[in-house]
Amino acid sequence: MNAAVLSALGAPLAIQSLPDPVLGTGEIIVDVVAAGVANYAAEIFSGARTYMLELPLAPGAGGIGRVRATGPDATRLSAGDWVFCDPTIRSRDDAVNPDMILQGWTARSVAALPLHRFYHHGSFAEQMLLPTENVTPLGNIEAADAGGWCALSQLLVPYGGLLAADLRAGETLVVNGASGGFGSAGVAVALAMGAATVVATGRNRRALDELVRRFGQRVRPAPMTGVEADDRGRIGELAGGPIDCVLDLLPPMASASQVLAAVLAVRPGGRVVLMGGVGRSGGADLALPYPWLMRNDITVRGKWMYPREAVPRMVRLIRAGLIDLAQYELTEFGLDDVNEAVAYAAANAGPLRLTVLRPDRSGARRQS
Q1: Per CATH, is 155-302 categorized as 3.30.70.270?
Q2: Residue by residue, what is the 3-state secondary structure of the chain?
């Protein structure tokens, strides 16, 4: 099979011929049709983000494709089925505390490296080998629409956070970092789950206004200034009442004060879910006031990725029309243009934007 391979940090990806995956029990081989390109992929491939991975590697976290072959223990999937390839792989020998990787992207710990070595290559390739439980059927779709379904990789992350927060219909939510890819997806998911009001925070006023244009007046844009007390007051004013929940998706380069502004705005008995990367770039970590947490009965929870059952549930939300994939601005590249795709994704980050690699085709960039 052909694949885009990263041989060394800082080197461009090169198209190489790799051995086809070999099927075993408990595994699926998928022909990859479309794979999302994260806007921070260039930072991983350069080494600027210190992800735990071993090279050489065909990267790519998740994708859309068609089943090529199933193991003898698969009872529902058949060759030709359209599926989502979930990159969140969990070890099978400890149900309580499994080791985890993102296939083709990173291992979460040293203990997870055996998983990373076995399920090594990701979706920037013509084929993938995955555990059976990491392949979710999508139903019938057109090949031309496969790129749009790559939005699943963005939507599932905040969905995992909102499930952890137990977001309920009619509640008021703050999405911190709403002008980014995961944050804007969080706005879409929260509205689909029935949030009455979503206060969308970010530095880019134009991007926040675009969310209002797309989703309507249930979204309240809150441009941040960096002054914690002022930003907290603005969030509270725009909410128009008690804030039930905060979902933080701010990137590593954001400051802890941006997190604090949203967290301290939550009502007594409120919930906070942290899914961003603040502090990873060497900045100040988040410090929350102990007396305030205790006296106000605040629940603070960290969340990494999403539970396995979130994937079919998200597919159903899309199929029901509660999330419209047509809201995404899609730009596609053939496999041969992988380095151009990585550069384009970095330069065009923003709300509801998808850069997609198409291993099933070569040729010029396509937008829709």
Answers
A1: no
A2: CEEEEECCCCCCCEEEECCCCCCCCCEEEEEEEEEECCCCHHHHHHCCCCCCCCCCECCCCCEEEEEEEECCCCCCCCCCCEEEECCEEECCCCCCCCCEEECCCEECCHHHHHHHHHCCCCCCECEEEEEHHHEEECCCCCHHHHHHHCCHHHHHHHHHHHHHHCCCCCCEEEEECCCCHHHHHHHHHHHHCCCCEEEEEECCHHHHHHHHHHHCCCEEEEECCCCHHHHHHHHHHHHCCCCCEEEECCCCCCCHHHHHHHHCCCCCCCEEEECCCCCCCCCCCCCCCHHHHHHCCCEEEECCCCCCCHHHHHHHHHHCCCCCHHHCEEEEEEHHHHHHHHHHHHHCCCCCEEEEEECCCCCCCEEC
The ranges assigned to domains in the chain are 2-151+328-367, 155-302
- Round to whole Å and give the CA distance between 154 and 36: 9
* Tokens at 29, concatenated: 């081989």
* pLDDT (0 to 100) of residue 283: 78
| 107-129 pLDDT, tens digit each | 999 999 999 999 999 999 999 99
Is 364 within 8 Å of 336 (Cβ atoms)? no
Q: pLDDT tens, 33-88?
A: 999 999 999 999 999 998 999 999 999 999 999 999 999 999 999 999 999 999 99
Topology (CATH) of 2-151+328-367? Quinone Oxidoreductase; Chain A, domain 1 (3.90.180)
Angle between helices 228-239 and 256-263 (to 10 degrees): 40
